[in-house]
Amino acid sequence: MPAMQITPRPLVGIACVIGAATLWGTTGTSQALAGGNLSPAWFGALRLAFAAMFFLAFAAMTGATKRQAWKDLAPSDVVGAGLCMAVYNLAFFAGVRLTGVGIGTAIALGSGPIWAGLLQAAFQRQMPTTAWWTGTGVAIVGGVLLSLGGGALTFSATGMLLCLAAGFSYAVYTLLNKRMVGRAPAASITLGAFTLAALISLPAAGLQAGMPAITVRELLAAAYAGLVTAGVGYLLFSHALRHIAPATSVTLALTEPVVAYGLAALVLGEPTNATAVAGLALVVSGVLGVVRVELTAVSRPVAPQGGGSAGRI
């Protein structure tokens, strides 16, 4: 399969991931403002459904639904990405329900960069540098403190395994996406992946939580989460993967809990504490360290990876 020629621009990739993570960080606040009793499984499934509709409209407007846009994509990559997104959605919400928001989010988001770094080393033969692991480790510790700050701990082995599975599936999705963005428009990739994820998640939500009674506010919140946080967010994320390494993208996405924490304090009036503030500072420090690694790596020539898009780290 021929690869698209892409000139990596790391600053563009970094900006796109941080923009995507900023949008993702608003999801929890939008869900809280809905003020209803819609189950997390249904909220997540509807988010995927609205995202699929967004990608269909965007792909149609940009010509990404044409056969030409799909001809160089391996069907197994598209199916794999869709399955990963569905597993992430189902495992994350189920895991958080068993462990609590704090520990569940910390495990899912914190394990993602570790999985991505190991998978990148195994399948792309690019072991992340010591500096990358250091920055990622600092950001993960900060994310744990930020997520757990002041929250009660609930131990659930099943919940923790589900959250680890969510982090793993997110990392695999990122590597598959990285491989595909060198061969097709981001709109085509996200349309295929999210349509399949929605088709899996909607009946799964029905089996888990029954048929929902959805209020207008809940529907609007789910629409916002699907169209904006998932739709625009994952388009930005896919575009970012044209310019930066997969493991770096997953680490930079740890900006998400920083945004979520800030909105929870400013908009929802949730209390702050020293643990969470220390965690916030560590996340920012770690992310800045990873940014420095990525910008430094651009000067080192490497062979193209994953469909023509340089995978540097």
Whole-number count of domains: 1
Annotation, overall tally of beta strands: 0
Fraction of residues in H or I helices:
over 70%
Describe the largest sheet.
none
Q: What is the number of helices?
A: 13
Mean pLDDT: 84
Rg of Cα set? 18 Å
**Strand residues, percent:** under 5%
Uncertain parts: 301-313
H and E order? HHHHHHHHHHHHH
The span between the termini is 25 Å
**Helix- and strand-based class?**
mainly alpha
- Shape type: globular
Structural notes for this entry:
There is one protein chain. This protein is mainly α and 313 residues long. It has one domain. The protein has helices at residues 10-24, 27-34, 40-62, 67-70, 75-99, 101-123, 130-148, 157-180, 186-209, 216-240, 246-252, 255-266, 274-297. Helix 3 runs antiparallel to helix 5 (75-99), helix 6 (101-123) runs antiparallel to helix 7 and helix 12 (255-266) runs antiparallel to helix 13 (274-297). It is globular, with a radius of gyration of 18 Å. It starts with 9 loop residues before the first helix and ends in a 16-residue tail after the last helix. Residues 301-313 have low confidence and may be disordered.
